[in-house]
């Protein structure tokens, strides 16, 4: 059996030093097998002259050595270490890199501002199925902004303004005065002055990377008692962010530490983070905030896998491909057939092809309804629903995630109503019927593919009747047995009568 490669990526940021170890197979499928971080706060050790002294690197060197030891335990074939704003903006950046490399044995890339923006953009497009938007990555010592259209990067800029160095400059007192808030916002506005492209794309989503955006999402989720504890692809409106930006600066550090969802180690730097974010949102005239759980490290991985020439992947299909490689040994051909047949049935009974959202739901639920077998075969559909809702599947909105999970574990009399009620804050009013319709179609498609007797299906709606023709190589006893129950649910959900006929597959 060929052993998969392991790759370690170390992100030496201005606030935290992070490690992630990926397992990668020869076809490019990957998964995270280890992750760790330490808040070294390198931005906080910059001297008045802009340099960082060797004596101030003791903590960073210790952490990097420990991360290297962890990588060796996982037998990584390569460690890619990337240093960002705190080091690149230092007046002695080359000397710092030399010190770190000598003390740790690592090869460290000093990432330019444009390259950091590029890596962040790659992380976003591989994880969120948005066509256009602004990517905003607020780090400890810099903020990168990228605008993309049709999933292609158009412009990027890196500002030497981050959450840690802004706190050091303006946040000396426990609470933030209005004067200090205004001064930071002016800094950001002036730094963007003269960049025409910043104001030429109004009405796009602001996709936030990094700890600031994730923390603000957690605060809002706690406030609203959001029913899905996932930040990736969580969306926030302008008013929600404005409320947070108005309330946090007036709190003392001790009070901020008690805010639900706000980690204590971010109680000081969350204020400059939200002020920077809100200022950029106003300047670009964004329409909403979207959280990306993927960022620089994911972009570095994508760059590595594609040998420096990455293309924008289909986020959903790429994510599911990774699962299928590392998940339970279910034939991909069978899952694809279930998806195709579900689409055929949907198109016939709806008398229209699925819209893009329903296509994603049908695809995700068809390909992942057996995901729970990796946990335990028995009651696997319930495990599948949990897995879909908590694994941050790339390419799905939270609503699409919930509907995919419901379809994967479709149980119309009990579990489906329970899930619909639990996640009513995320779903639309019309989604109760929608969930039953998609779930019943998936159950029918599963039954049709229970064995290998049925090679193709054809479906057409005639008034209130759905006529399904099954092309078979053998008498489909197993399939028809499974269809008995599925037909009842489908008929009730769609208000149709399903009738099926069998025709023999041609030989040769």
Explain how this protein is built:
By secondary structure, the chain is α/β, with parallel strands linked by helices. Helix content is 46%, strand content 18%. It has 19 helices and 14 strands. The protein has helices at 58-73, 85-88, 93-104, 113-125, 163-170, 178-192, 210-224, 238-247, 253-256, 270-284, 296-305, 315-326, 332-350, 356-368, 380-390, 398-408, 415-422, 431-448, 477-494, and strands at residues 5-12, 17-24, 30-38, 78-83, 108-110, 133-138, 143-149, 152-159, 206-209, 235-236, 289-291, 454-462, 465-472, 497-504. The chain has a six-stranded mixed β-sheet with strand order 8-7-6-9-11-10, with helices on both faces. Strands 3-2-1-4-5 form a five-stranded mixed β-sheet, with helices on both faces. It has a three-stranded mixed β-sheet with strand order 12-13-14, with helices on one face. A hairpin with a 4-residue loop joins strand 6 (133-138) and strand 7. The longest helix has 19 residues, at 332-350. The two termini are 37 Å apart. The model has no long low-confidence stretch (mean pLDDT 92).
- Uncertain stretches: none
Quickly count the helices: 19
Give the overall pLDDT as a whole number: 92
Strand order in space, largest sheet: 8-7-6-9-11-10
Output the structural class. Answer: alpha/beta
Principal-axes geometry comes out as: elongated
Largest sheet: 6 strands, mixed
Count all strands and give the number.
Answer: 14
Which assembly state applies to the chains in this document?
single chain
Strand content: 15-25%
Overall helicity: 40-55%
């Amino acid at each position: 059996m060929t052993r998969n490669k392991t790759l370690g990526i170390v992100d030496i940021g201005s606030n935290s030093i992070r490690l992630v170890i990926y397992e990668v197979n020869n076809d490019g499928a990957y998964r995270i097998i280890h992750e760790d971080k330490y808040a070294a706060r390198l931005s906080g050790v910059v001297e008045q002259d802009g340099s960082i002294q060797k004596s101030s690197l003791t903590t960073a060197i210790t952490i990097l050595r420990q991360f290297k030891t962890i990588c060796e335990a996982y037998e990584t074939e390569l460690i890619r270490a990337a240093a960002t704003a705190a080091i690149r903006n230092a007046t002695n950046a080359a000397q710092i890199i030399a010190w770190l490399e000598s003390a740790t044995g690592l090869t460290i890339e000093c990432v330019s501002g444009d390259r950091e923006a590029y890596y962040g953009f790659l992380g976003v497009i591989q994880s969120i199925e948005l066509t256009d938007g602004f990517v905003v990555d607020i780090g400890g010592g810099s903020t990168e902004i990228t605008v993309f259209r049709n999933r292609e990067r158009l412009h990027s800029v890196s500002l030497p303004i981050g959450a840690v160095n802004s706190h050091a400059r303006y946040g000396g007192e426990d609470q933030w005065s209005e004067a200090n808030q205004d001064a930071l916002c002016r800094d950001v506005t002036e730094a963007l002055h003269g960049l025409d492209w910043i104001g030429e794309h109004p009405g796009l989503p602001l996709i936030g990377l990094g700890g600031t955006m994730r923390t603000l999402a957690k605060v809002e989720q706690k406030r609203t008692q959001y029913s899905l504890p996932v930040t990736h692809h969580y969306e926030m409106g302008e008013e929600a962010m404005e409320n947070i930006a108005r309330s946090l600066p007036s709190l003392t550090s001790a009070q901020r530490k008690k805010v639900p969802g706000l980690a204590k180690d971010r109680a000081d730097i969350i204020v400059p983070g939200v002020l920077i974010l809100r200022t950029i949102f106003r300047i670009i005239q964004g329409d909403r905030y979207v959280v990306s759980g993927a960022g620089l490290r994911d972009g570095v991985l994508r760059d590595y896998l594609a040998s420096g020439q990455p293309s924008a992947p289909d986020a959903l299909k790429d994510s599911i491909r990774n699962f299928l490689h590392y998940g339970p040994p279910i034939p991909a051909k069978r899952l694809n057939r279930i998806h195709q047949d579900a689409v055929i049935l949907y198109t016939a009974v709806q008398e229209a092809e699925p819209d893009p959202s329903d296509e994603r739901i049908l695809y995700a639920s068809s390909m992942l309804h057996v995901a729970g077998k990796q946990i335990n075969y028995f009651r696997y559909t319930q495990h599948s629903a949990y897995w879909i809702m908590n694994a941050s599947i790339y390419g799905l909105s939270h609503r699409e995630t919930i509907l995919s999970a419901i379809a994967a574990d479709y149980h119309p009399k009990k579990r489906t109503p329970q899930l619909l009620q639990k996640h009513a804050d995320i779903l639309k009013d019309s989604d109760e019927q929608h969930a039953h319709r998609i779930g019943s179609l998936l159950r029918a498609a599963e039954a049709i593919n229970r064995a290998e007797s049925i090679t193709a299906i054809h479906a057409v709606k005639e008034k209130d009747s759905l006529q399904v023709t099954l092309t078979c190589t053998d008498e489909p006893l197993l399939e028809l047995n499974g269809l008995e129950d599925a037909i009842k649910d489908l008929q009730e959900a769609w208000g149709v009568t399903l009738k099926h006929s069998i025709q023999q597959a041609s030989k040769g």
